[in-house]
């Protein structure tokens, strides 16, 4: 699998898997006096996620967190494969690939911290945001110039869809913005 360059991999991606905290969010949580936690997600990432689903890509989210608000937000973007509370991400990956008859080499994964380390070694195209921890940057085939929650998800989605001629601007069709 390592014979391909990063650009070459983009052509073969059928499946995107994202971590939540520090990737789909900027990694911060606002905590209220009642202990409720608020996360921030990026609308531009959301638009690209929705477009990817509409273009027929498999889009999956695997997170160690268990926030149901996260599930609702992602479901509203059309994402069906949402695995929260995943303590063993590699196990979820293996089952997901088997169930959907997918190959690991066609998967782009984006993670930012040590819980993503093992799973990133099992997929074709491991990627990370600019502010990922050094260990994750070291094993990534691509480090986005964007940070977690600041457009890193959009960055990789857009690159793959552009290379495959599926991005809105290249075919005149666009998803609804919300
Ligand atoms: Mg994370």
From TrEMBL:
CDD domains for the chain: HAD_KDO-like
Keywords: Hydrolase, Magnesium, Metal-binding
SUPFAM superfamilies per the UniProt record, alphabetical: HAD-like
Binding site for substrate: 21
Cofactor: Mg(2+)
Positions of Mg(2+) binding: 19, 112
GO molecular function: hydrolase activity, acting on ester bonds; metal ion binding; N-acylneuraminate cytidylyltransferase activity
Known partners and oligomeric status: Homotetramer.
Family statement drawn from the similarity comment of this UniProt entry: Belongs to the KdsC family.
PANTHER family reported for this sequence: HAD SUPERFAMILY MEMBERS CMAS AND KDSC, N-ACYLNEURAMINATE CYTIDYLYLTRANSFERASE
The name this protein goes by in its record: HAD-IIIA family hydrolase
Protein source organism: Aequorivita ciconiae
Lineage, broadest ranks: Bacteria, Pseudomonadati, Bacteroidota, Flavobacteriia, Flavobacteriales
